[in-house]
Specification:
16% strand; 41% helix; single chain; globular; alpha/beta; 401 residues; 5-stranded parallel beta sheet; 16 helices; 3-stranded antiparallel beta sheet
């Protein structure tokens, strides 16, 4: 039997056939796969899946829904769209408009022996009814990922369009992030009583470890429990990030070519794989923009003395604090204050008060959410930081910027 290669086992950007981990939602005792199957088999209901970024929401849909039956779109696809059904029709290849012609031939008679033909032409366009019937006939499911990227008014329109469609047994799944406005779906009174709600909980350490342990077993290699635990911690609840770290560790160790490797226990190589994983992450400019902060209009920003000998302004310090150990995906203002105090050489002049932290985080929040989606990496809400993209936090910890 042919030996598997590392990029067949660890697949950060596609369905992980050999390292898929089935999880149960707490309080229910059922797997997420079972819950999604139940939702899709309940006529007249819309399915709403909410969970942190890079936690396997789309992969869950790929596991449950046959590839040929899954029609994927994202909220970004509707940013400039005038008609929801037009976008969906275009995705499945239904002609948006066209012309139908039919020719009728009349046989000749004794008085007029020549055959005569008449052509009729009719213009048509794809509409809601045609799309719904096409989906039902072909057992298709619309999976609308990253719903939060659609403008608010577009979200409301999509919710309105789906309301009638699901009543006619059109199957749809809407995927979004927590801590982002999802009022258009979950708090929409028109959809009340017609929603299947699935909240994806953050991955636990043991679940992430299973990816590494199972995956390396597939390659005939044992990884120490200690290293697998450290990888799980750095993966920040993200199975996608865990897949990337495992793949890059395999590349650094040359596992596919070196058959003498039977066990992995080198922590230095692991840290090297962390840095290697950040190379192609697109956050260099994001970090620069956040460190720059809002415009100072020519005034020099105050800098504080750090214990490592550097001097840094408040925005540089905020990012350093977010990146400190332990890596976590949410921080309160009190936790931020504690981390900042650990970074600074504290004296009466250098102290940074909580009000300053709050104001500065709000300014960073405003910068992010007035920029493109790639810059929207964390959210400042209710005196709490919520990391929306764990890959950004990983880059902040291990990237060079």
């Amino acid at each position: 039997m042919r030996k598997l290669r590392s990029n067949e086992v660890f697949k950060p950007g596609s369905f992980p056939k050999y390292t898929y981990v089935s999880r149960k939602s707490s309080g229910f005792g059922f797997t997420y796969e079972t819950r999604l199957k139940q939702a899709l088999n309940t006529p007249g209901y819309l399915t709403s899946i909410i969970g942190p970024s890079k936690t396997g929401k789309t992969v869950l849909c790929e596991k449950v829904i046959e590839p040929q039956n899954m029609v994927s779109l994202t909220g970004s696809d509707f940013k400039n769209a005038k008609d929801f059904w037009e976008v969906v029709a275009n995705k499945v290849g239904l002609p948006l408009e066209g012309e139908y012609s039919e020719t009728t031939v009349l046989k000749g008679t004794d008085n007029s022996p020549e055959d005569k033909s008449f052509s009729t032409r009719e213009k048509y366009g794809s509409n809601k009814d045609k799309v719904i019937e096409f989906f039902k006939k072909n057992n298709l499911v619309l999976v609308l990922d990253d719903f939060h990227y659609a403008p608010e008014e577009v979200q409301l329109d999509i919710a309105y369009q789906l309301k009638d469609a699901i009543r006619r047994e059109f199957k749809a799944v809407v995927i979004s992030l927590p801590h982002r406005a999802d009022d258009a779906i979950r708090k929409n009174p028109d959809l009340s009583g017609r929603l299947n709600l699935i909240n994806i909980e953050p991955w636990q350490e043991d679940e992430l470890k299973e990816i590494a342990i199972t995956g390396f077993e597939q390659l005939g290699i044992k990884i120490s429990d200690e290293l697998a635990s450290k990888m799980a911690l750095e993966s920040l609840t993200s199975p996608q990030l865990m897949q990337s770290i495992c793949l890059n560790l395999s590349l650094i160790l040359n596992i596919d070519e070196d058959e003498s490797i039977k066990e992995i226990n080198d922590e230095k190589k692991l840290e090297e794989s962390y840095r290697f994983t950040t190379i192609n992450l697109p956050y260099q400019e994001v970090v620069k923009k956040l460190m720059a902060g809002p415009s100072t209009r020519g005034q020099e920003r105050k800098k504080y003395q750090l214990k490592n000998g550097e001097k840094a302004d408040i925005y540089h310090i905020l990012l350093k604090a977010i990146a400190q150990n332990p890596p976590v995906v949410s921080l309160s203002v009190d936790e931020m204050k504690e981390r900042i105090d650990q970074l600074l050489v504290i004296n009466s002049k250098e102290k940074i008060e909580k009000n300053k932290i709050r104001d500065s985080l709000q300014k960073l929040h405003d910068i992010m959410f007035s920029s493109e989606p790639i810059y929207q990496v964390f959210e400042w809400k209710d005196n709490q930081i919520f990391i929306l993209d764990p890959l950004f936090l990983f880059f902040l910890r291990w990237g060079t910027c």
